[in-house]
Write a structure and sequence with these properties.
Length: 71
Amino acid sequence: MAIRYDKLIQKLTEGNYTSYTMKKTGLMGQSTYQAVMEGKGRLSQETIDRLCKEFNCQPGDLMEWVPDEEE
């Protein structure tokens, strides 16, 4: 099972958020931001909560579950 954060990445890009602004605002750490942007990161429940408050949205507006690909 995989969680994709493409919706979050779109919101961050549209809002001109950078790793520096993430750290400055306390929304998420710079390393977490970089990992999410590279498609390798995972967000804690606390981070998801802060992001939902920032964007006034639901968790499903930030991420989606994608089933594993069978080989």
